[in-house]
Structures are given as structure tokens and as C-alpha cells.
Fold:
Amino acid sequence: MHNIANILCYALIIYGSSMMGFTIARNYAERPRQLQALLTGVQILLTEIVYAATPLSEALQNLSRSCDTIGAFFSRVAQEIDNLKPARIAWEEGLEQLQAASALLAPDIEALRALGDVIGTSDREDQQRHLLLASRRIEGLHQSAVNEAAKNERLWRYLGVLAGIVAVIIIF
Amino acid sequence: MDKVINTDWTSLLKLFPSHWQDSLYHLDCLEIRARTGKPVQIVQSGKEIMLPIIASNQDIQHLVSAFSGSSLYAFEDELRQGYITLPGGHRVGFAGKALLDPKGHIRGLKHISTICLRIAKSVKGCADRLWRELLDAEGCPYHTLVISPPQAGKTTLLRDMARQLSDKGQRVCIIDERSEIAGCYNGRPQLDVGLRTDVLDGCPKAEGMLMALRALSPDVIVTDEIGRAEDASAIEEALNSGVRVMASAHGATYEEVAARPNLSTLLQRGLFQRVVILSNRRGPGTVEYIGGVFSRQKGEHHAQHS
Structure:
């Protein structure tokens, strides 16, 4: 009876620590994907704003169909703008939620925040400059996120399982 | 002001910073002017109020953002003119630092520091009293020129004339270069201009008149603030193709208008058959004179609404 409880306990430790490893690994894998979605989003936004002069809320609403977490962010900002909230505030509030819900890190959010301060507040030429800058920043972040994912994703997946096993061995 | 239509005051109010809304709610405003660092100025008919609110830079940015739907870039053409039109036909004028292109033309504005909101009010029926003088035996309007100083109601009068003619069965075309007559937003008239009215919004008057003649076969063309050389030739073109023209010009007196080079040719050649002169003497829309161009006598009527 005592043995069975022990085995169960060990299994739980291994399960828990592998899950932790998997979660961290998944975040490493998710971040490049979400950054890619953001990059596409910002590039579409650039086209919509610079070439079609589409009103911001409509442009963001069009983007919201694209991707889950990122799409939800764009859609939320669009809704708030429709509710007559200034874009800067709507964007800022959207970012807070995005940070909590996504695998994005502080520098990613910071790049978006810089864009939020100026979006919709100037003429097309100026908007183009800011959107290009933002898309370049996100592109850089995406590249480094891909590299980090390649290095760390598998590492964490194994590390979780192994750490569990090591812990069990030590206790045993 | 019994016939003033102003249904969307509450929805307009939502665009303002929340701490302004309470002070503005009960006011009957013609204009609201906000300047960075200065108290908010309200213009009512005949008087002005300074609200005990100092407009901060943030408030102004809030207003710019709210008026443009956070999409200032979508209003570049409008900003070049210095104003945008809101849903409801209200006009927002801006002042700030002008951006120039290499040729020295205004490309737009930045660092906007002043906002001037003119609230659009239709005064339905303000043209009622004038028809006796303005219609011929067949019920078609004469070629009419409305002369008035700013804020004395010439656009309001033109709008009501367009609406009534249109509802009476004439095909009316409004060439609305400054989006004042019909107050178009996204190309749709926000003010009642009648059943049979087509509006060429934001369209230069001369080109617009010719475009209307070609494409819309109107009975009456209505346009605001004529005065350029090409306007005069376009009006002649319209007159010669059997279309009635109702137009307005800036000026306090007939003599003032007749002294302007392009208008004087039109007037001297008798192309306009009727002249209406408005003033602000007894409130906006006071009719100082109505009648033919040459048989001028001092007559005084008073428009119904004032």
C-alpha cells in the first residue's frame, strides 16, 4: 500500500515537472508565431493606412480575422475606438490584455506601445514612417525569437522530464 | 429658435472629454472654440460664454482624435482645407502648424492647438417667404444670387431653397465644395436637402457644375460662395443650357459684391435675375433686399425664423 502511494507520488512529480517544461517550451514556440502574426498585421495596417486611408477602426477590424490572440487584440482596439475612445488609450489597454494572454515578452510589447502613441495622429507620410519602424522592430524581434525557440524549445521539453526524473531519483 | 433642428446634440457631446460634458450639456451652442491653455469659448446666437474650463493640450488631442475617429491620416484632403465635416454635418476647423510641400503649398497641419466646432443647424422654412419673388410663372426659380456677410444665414437659406425646390419636384444638384450646404459625411448628406437632390460633395464649383450638367441633368444647380473666374464661366455655361442657378456670394452690400471683378461681369450682363441680400441686423437671416438686379429698391422683409 505504501509502495503504491510512493509510485503515485513519483509519477506526479515527473508529470508536473514535464508539464512545466512543456509550457515553457510552448511559449518559446508560440512567441515567433505571434510575432509573425503581429508583423503581418502591422504590414497590412500600413497598406490600409498609407494607400487606402482606411479609417483606423475599420482597418483594425479587418485584421482581427487573422489570428487568435493577436486578432483579439486588434478587434478589441477597434471596438474601443468605435466607442469613441482615443486610439492611444484603447491601444494601451489592449496591450495590457495582450501581454497577459500571449507569449509576447516585454520588448515586444514595448515596440507595440511606441506605435500606439502615434497611430492615427498624423498624416499618411508620417504614419508610414512609424509603421515601417514598428514593422522593422518586430521583424528583428521575430528573428531573435526564432533563434531562441530553436535553441530552447527542445531543451525545455527534455529538461522538464529529466528534472522530474532526477528529483525522483534523489528522493528515492 | 423654434424650427431649429438639432437632434444629435447628445451624440455630439460624447466626443468631448468627459469633464467637459456636464458644462456643455445644457447650452445651446452655435460654436464651440477650444484653444490650448485658454478657457473654452461658447458662441450662442448673439453672445458668447467663456466656460470655467481650461483646455489642456491633452484635451485638444482627445478632440482631434475623437473628431477624426483616431484616423487623422484619412482626412488629409480635408485638413489641407483646414476643416473636417462630422456626421450630422457639423464642421470642425483646426489651427496649428502648417506643413508645406516643396512648392510651398499647404500639405496639412500638425501640432493642432485650436479647434473650432460649428454646429450645423437647418432652419426649415426659412425660404418660405421668399418664393413669391423667386419663382416665375411656371414655378421655376429665377437665377438667384444670395449676398450676405458671414454667419448671416446664406448657406442655411440656400439649403432650405434646395430642399423645398427638390420636394416640389425639381431635380436639384448641389455643388458643395466645402461640405457646408448638405454637410456630407462619407458622401451622404447629413442635412435634409430634399427628395430629388444630388450632392457633389467636396467638388470644385466650376468643374462640379459642368460635371452635373453632363451627368445628372438637373433643373436647378445650387452652389455656395462663387467668386472665381472659372465659376463665372461655368455659371454662364449652366445658364445657357437651360438650368436655373442659385448661388451665394460673400458681401454685406450689393455694391461690395458688384465691385468684385468676376462677379461684376455676371451681374452687369444681367445673368442673375434675382438678388437676395441678407444681414445680421435682426439676427441671422434678416432679409435686407429681395428683387431684380436692376430694379433695385430698398425693401425689407424678415425671414420667418428670426
In short: The first helix of chain B runs from residue 9 to 13. Residues 85 and 91 of chain B are 5 Å apart (CA to CA).
